[in-house]
């Protein structure tokens, strides 16, 4: 998405009565991965942020083939449901979820986290970037939108994510608790503006 389109999306979302848009957010994504890591990127279609960082080391999983088709070349692309991943236990040295959990109904997030834990090697980490979604009021718009500026080590990408609001409530605390419930240790929690970043570590045994 180019800069003009990004600005128009942010403006249009604010003016529409059917869309709730938070203020544009900025998220920094550092390259913390090892050169030998096989990285599972949950919801890795569309902009393919993690794939842009590590190319062929990334296995981008998305339930929608059209989203994977739009993803820049580089990562391995797999159409799959994150609640039932087609990979053996302990297959990956790292996993990511970049503005993916917002698309998962709150009731299904534990299942996604449990599957992520299963396919990660002992001691591996799952890194989550996402947006805080409040409980919608009775007269709340149908859609929730976040315009986003993503700072990568070598470039900045302007994009945005939108989802049906009802049933997508999310906070750093709710994600952390769901992660603990399926056996992750919460290694770090960062809140910045309307965004959250969690680092979860799979148990060593």
Structure description:
The termini are far apart. The chain has helices at 3-15, 49-54, 65-70, 109-119, 172-181, and strands spanning 19-21, 25-28, 39-42, 58-62, 76-79, 92-98, 120-131, 143-151, 156-164, 185-192, 195-201. The protein is of the alpha/beta class. The protein is globular and about 45 Å long. Strand 8 and strand 9 (156-164) form a beta hairpin. It has five helices and eleven strands, in the order αβββαβαββαβββαββ. Helix 4 (109-119) packs across helix 5.
Characteristic key phrases:
single chain; 205 residues; alpha/beta; Rossmann fold; seven-stranded mixed sheet; four-stranded mixed sheet; 11 strands; 35% strand; globular; disordered N terminus
Please describe the topology of this protein.
Layout: H1 3-15, E1 19-21, E2 25-28, E3 39-42, H2 49-54, E4 58-62, H3 65-70, E5 76-79, E6 92-98, H4 109-119, E7 120-131, E8 143-151, E9 156-164, H5 172-181, E10 185-192, E11 195-201
Parallel strand pairs: 1-8, 2-8, 3-4, 3-6, 4-5, 6-7
Antiparallel strand pairs: 7-11, 8-9, 10-11
Helix pairs in contact: 4-5
- Helix and strand sequence: HEEEHEHEEHEEEHEE
Q: Beta fraction of the residues?
A: 35-45%
Assembly category: single chain
**What number is the mean pLDDT?**
91
**Backbone structural class:** alpha/beta
Instruction: Return Rg in Å.
Output: 16 Å
Kindly summarize this structure in a few lines:
The chain is α/β, with parallel strands linked by helices and 205 residues long. The chain has helices at 3-15, 49-54, 65-70, 109-119, 172-181, and strands at 19-21, 25-28, 39-42, 58-62, 76-79, 92-98, 120-131, 143-151, 156-164, 185-192, 195-201. It has one domain (3-201): Vaccinia Virus protein VP39 (Rossmann fold).
């Amino acid at each position: 998405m180019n800069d003009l389109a990004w600005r128009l999306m942010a403006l249009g979302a604010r003016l529409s009565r059917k869309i709730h848009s938070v203020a544009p957010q900025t998220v920094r994504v550092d390259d913390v991965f090892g050169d030998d890591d096989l990285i599972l990127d949950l919801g890795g279609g569309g902009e393919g942020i993690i794939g842009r960082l590590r190319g062929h080391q990334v296995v981008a999983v998305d339930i929608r083939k059209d989203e994977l088709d739009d993803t820049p070349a580089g990562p391995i692309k797999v159409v799959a449901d994150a609640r039932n991943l087609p990979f053996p236990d302990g297959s990956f040295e790292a996993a990511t979820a970049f503005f993916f959990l917002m698309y998962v109904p709150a009731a299904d997030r534990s299942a996604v986290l449990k599957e992520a834990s299963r396919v990660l090697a002992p001691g591996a980490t799952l890194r989550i970037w996402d947006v805080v979604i409040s409980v919608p009021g009775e007269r709340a718009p149908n859609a929730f939108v976040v315009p986003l500026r993503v700072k990568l080590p070598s470039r900045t990408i302007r994009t945005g994510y939108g989802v049906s609001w009802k049933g997508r409530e999310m906070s750093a605390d709710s994600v952390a608790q769901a992660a603990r419930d399926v056996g992750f240790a919460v290694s770090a929690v960062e809140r910045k503006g309307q965004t959250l970043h969690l680092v979860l570590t799979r148990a060593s045994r």
